[in-house]
Amino acid sequence: MINDRLIDAGDLPLAVRDFGGTAPPLLLLHGAGGNLAQMTTLARALRPHHRVVTVDLRGHGRSGDGTWTWDAALGDLAAVCVQLELERPAVVGHSLGGMLAALWGQRHPESPGIISLDGNPPPTRAEHLPGLDPEKAEAELARLHAIFDAMEAVAGQVIEADKLPDLVERQQMAARDMGANEKVWIEGFRRNLKHENGETSIRPSAATTSQLRALMNSLDLTPVYSATTCPELVILPTRNLPEQEPFAELYEAHRRYLLQQAKAVPRLRYLSLADASHAMVIEQPALIASVITDFLAEHRGR
Fold first, then answer.
1. Is the C-alpha dihedral spanning 85, 13, 153, 173 positive or negative?
2. What pLDDT is recorded for position 301?
3. 247, 208 Cβ separation under 8 angstroms
């Protein structure tokens, strides 16, 4: 039985969805700006082999708002494990969730494994873009950061009531374009709507967006992976999202950097997934579930 509930994480409530069962536990984490609903298709594909629990990270979905730090978010996950009696869960995360999975693995050597689904900080320096002329790299980074600045500026803004139906329709079209489950996609969109004092806005808030951006921009995962002793797997994309195409050279260079980073850590397993973008969770959920299940089964009982 699938069970939705709120748990007390101390300073805020956390929304979780427990897919049930007695199989080995697995925490499944969404990316920045998402929520647990967006992991539903992958969770269902994993459920035959795991007791899957998805979580709305703080500031997202139906969870409470609170200052975003890596320690706070990891504390939230620990509270989920205690209250749901998840003993030694594997942790799988997409994007921001993948970064949390990596940090969890560093702190929990007893974990049966952590898997990052393109959980990589964005490029912020020219050295993150090998093969690009440094001057061009700086120019491209400035152009990219201007896009992120614009996105941050509108985060959490109130949606006029007459605009909401158009937004829902655009989400339906986006789901069809991606070949995604439309019902799941719309649940994910609606789950991040916040209704307060007669107004509707989209979570995360401007404050949370700003905090997340600063955290991700300053994170270096190489020492994290190097210090991790539990099994760790990173699944990397091999192509761009449509919205990344204007920055095709930048993202191609950044993928080279991510490969270099992965190869530099002897214990780290990595996979460059064919025909996968940052949206791999939507594009290839069955294949990703198979890779995750095989990887964890390989290391079970170690």
1. positive
2. 57
3. no
